[in-house]
Amino acid sequence: MKLFDVYPINDINIVKGLGSYVWDDKGIEYLDMYGGHAVISIGHTHPHWVKKIEDQLEKIAFYSNSIKIPLQQELADKLGKVSGKNNYQLFLCNSGAEANENALKLASFHNGRKKIIAFTKSFHGRTSLAVSATDNPSIVAPVNETENVAFLPFNDEDALKKYFEKNGNEICAVIVEGIQGVGGIRVASKTFLQLVRNVCNQYGAVFIADEVQCGYGRTGTFYSQDQADVEADIYSMAKGMGNGFPIGAISISPAIAAKHFMLGTTFGGNHLACAAAIAVLEVMEKENILKNADETGNYLLNEIAKIPSLENVRGKGLMIGFDVPSELQELRANLLKRHKIFTGYAKPNVIRLLPSLALDKKDADKFLNALREEVNFLLSEKQNIPASVNA
Known about the structure:
Layout: E1 14-18, E2 21-24, E3 29-32, H1 35-38, H2 47-57, H3 70-83, E4 89-93, H4 96-111, E5 115-119, H5 128-132, E6 149-152, H6 157-167, E7 171-177, E8 179-180, E9 186-187, H7 190-203, E10 206-210, E11 234-237, E12 248-252, H8 271-286, H9 289-305, E13 311-316, E14 319-323, H10 331-339, E15 341-342, E16 344-346, E17 350-353, H11 361-383
Parallel strand pairs: 3-15, 5-6, 5-7, 7-10, 10-11
Antiparallel strand pairs: 1-2, 2-3, 4-12, 8-9, 11-12, 13-14, 14-17, 16-17
């Protein structure tokens, strides 16, 4: 049987990881500045995380949600404490797409409405309604098409106000990323997110904060939306939640009531997934991960901005993007090929950085030195002059 060919892949077989590094089957070491799509939150194979999963595996790995699973409540208590949302409710699932699917479904159950507002360049997942709210027609199958989702310009406050003035009583929910990841590290402004909160309050719509990529400490606050001093009705999360173990969730305002069978999952909240997620939160607390993400992220942002050939450096914490001009189009490929550094990409010309939130300054400097060297090398090649140390 052949694998279904849907992923363009690098011909590299990673067999081991530790902290911010991974190794291939030939023993070659790579600095991981992408974290497997922002999944690695506390570092590859963190020893506490490994031990927690091993200990749980020796007890029981899975049983269904038809029985009491105390680990779920332990995770809910820990997440409430670390996120500052103690009075919220937790529904556990398996992925970011599933989290957003349930968030949108729950919003519609709550107010009985159908209309969803999403934004240009948004990405919310590949399942039925989540992909319908994703601004990428190439991944929306005909069966996913719906008139219930309206796409408004991201960060356009006037457009949002006008749409609510015209359609406010029909709007079920607004779903928005605090920082768009796949969309190219586009940061939602503080006033824009505050407006989302205000119009949702005014018209009875549900504010869904998609924190799948930009949440869980990545920006230096637990949720990216925290930086706008707003509180969403539902937070969706997944990527950094299990540090590589599949788990997702939605954190739900106490104003939204639960009812038996309105949501459900077979594997969500299983024993192993909860153990992995609890370990992540314990490491976050013990090692002050959020502070590190903020400080190391600011350092990277400031240093990258000093490289004049790179454009529009932006982001928060360890969610960083910058535009690559045409003369440096080989930059990302060369960082991998020549310097053994993984980075991410967004169309049309963005390099994305989403490393472990435990990335230290030494490894940040290793990346910066390689970045400067490669920019300088590519520019000198174009101009056919010897490379210097300043890009």
